[in-house]
């Protein structure tokens, strides 16, 4: 059992995590944006806005910790995270690990062996990211759809090696909310305990049998794209959470939103004219990117209406993150 968790400002007691957002982002930049002359990044303005948003989370909604599992190649900037953490007084945890094949995995690292990739992960966990001295507190794994590719399996195997070597947990991305059970099997094959893994983005899958398969597999399950309604209406997400809670699985659910505060350049897909116009409207109103507070103002009331009580919320937002990072196992299992 770990006594501490590594944040971008140094280790803290696991008991100090408090209310935790388990899958959010500060800044995203897909490879290639740096060549776009229209992609302008005003760092001081971004830092000020990120600090404002995190302070609101902390002061109004009691959030103490913010996990940013940004993949290495999606603009991860540990120094930027540390600056924002210090100014906002929010614990921020960053990760090591790459994205999935279709949208990530730099060619250099595609050519490396699983052991070589694992060496990078272990170095970032034990020594620090680049020359920053900032250590990753978890490992990020991402797989595509409709199946996990052979290349992705190599990076997943590297994550298993690094997890066993360091003891830090694994947070996953599942594209299109499929592949969670397959990830679990590959983690098991790599010798990683199911309870050391958070299977991400399961709330994009409306099939409650899928959710049961993941929790029956012994992992934490991520309902961590709350508010992204182009993937799933939040009413459907709330139904899924309520059913799992009613069936006794509250101790395996992680709630978060996968939101960002800053995005460098254009989106990774072409927006429709209607989408672009709506974003322009929201930005003019100061509502884009959408606030991190949405889960508390809009989603938790949906859970309360379905019989999920405040004690259940505390388990999902406080107890589960603490046990996940502490390696204490699933509560009651």
The percent range for helix content is 40-55%
What is the 3D shape? globular
Discrete helix count: 11
The biggest beta sheet reads: 8 strands, parallel
Q: Determine and state the CATH class.
A: Alpha Beta
Could you give me the name of the CATH homologous superfamily? Metal-dependent hydrolases
Uncertain runs: none
Strand segment tally: 12
Quaternary structure of the protein: single chain
Number of domains: 1
Mean of pLDDT: 95
The N- to C-terminal Cα distance equals 16 Å
| Alpha-beta content class | alpha/beta
The radius of gyration is 19 Å
Give me the side-by-side strand order of the main sheet. 3-5-6-7-8-9-10-11
From the structure above, extract its key features.
8-stranded parallel sheet; single chain; TIM Barrel; 333 residues; globular; alpha/beta
Structure description:
With 333 residues, this protein is an alpha/beta fold. Helix content is 41%, strand content 14%. It has an eight-stranded parallel β-sheet. Strands 1-2 form a two-stranded antiparallel ribbon. Helix 6 links the parallel strand 8 (170-174) and strand 9. The protein starts with a strand and ends in a 7-residue tail after the last helix. 45% of the residues are buried. The mean pLDDT is 95.
Question: Could you give the topology of this structure?
Answer:
Layout: E1 4-7, E2 10-13, E3 19-21, E4 27-28, H1 43-61, E5 63-68, H2 78-88, E6 91-96, H3 107-110, H4 114-126, E7 138-143, H5 150-166, E8 170-174, H6 180-189, E9 197-199, H7 208-216, E10 220-223, H8 234-246, E11 253-255, E12 262-263, H9 273-284, H10 294-305, H11 310-326
Parallel strand pairs: 3-5, 4-12, 5-6, 6-7, 7-8, 8-9, 9-10, 10-11
Antiparallel strand pairs: 1-2
Helix pairs in contact: 1-2, 4-5
């Amino acid at each position: 059992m770990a006594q501490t968790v590594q944040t971008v400002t140094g280790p803290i007691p696991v008991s100090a995590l408090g209310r935790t957002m388990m899958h959010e982002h500060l800044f995203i930049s897909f490879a290639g944006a740096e060549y776009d002359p229209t992609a302008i990044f005003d760092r001081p303005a971004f830092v000020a806005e990120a600090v404002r948003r995190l302070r609101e989370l902390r002061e109004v909604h009691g959030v103490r910790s913010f996990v940013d599992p940004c993949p290495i190649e999606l603009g991860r900037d540990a120094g930027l995270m540390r600056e924002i953490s210090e100014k906002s007084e929010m614990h921020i945890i960053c990760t090591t690990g790459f994205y999935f094949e279709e949208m990530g995995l730099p060619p250099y690292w595609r050519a490396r062996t699983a052991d070589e990739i694992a060496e990078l992960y272990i170095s970032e966990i034990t020594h620090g990211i680049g020359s920053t001295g900032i250590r990753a507190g978890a490992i990020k794994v991402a797989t595509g759809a409709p199946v996990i590719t052979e290349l992705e399996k190599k990076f997943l195997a590297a994550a298993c090696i690094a997890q066993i070597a360091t003891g830090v947990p694994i947070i996953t991305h599942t594209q299109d909310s499929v592949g969670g059970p397959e990830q679990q099997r590959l983690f098991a094959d790599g010798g990683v305990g199911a309870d050391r893994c958070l299977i991400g983005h399961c709330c994009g899958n409306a099939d409650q049998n899928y959710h049961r398969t993941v929790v029956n597999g012994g992992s934490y399950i991520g309902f961590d794209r709350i508010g992204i309604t182009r993937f799933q209406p939040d009413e459907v997400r709330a139904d899924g959470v309520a059913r799992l809670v009613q069936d006794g699985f509250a101790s395996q659910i992680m709630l978060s939103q996968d939101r960002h505060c800053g995005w460098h350049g254009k989106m990774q897909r072409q927006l429709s004219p209607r989408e672009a116009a709506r974003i322009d409207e929201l930005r003019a109103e100061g509502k884009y990117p959408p606030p991190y507070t949405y889960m508390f103002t809009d989603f938790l009331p949906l859970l309360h209406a379905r019989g999920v009580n405040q004690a259940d919320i505390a388990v999902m937002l406080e107890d589960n993150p603490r046990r996940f990072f502490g390696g204490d196992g699933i509560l009651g299992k």
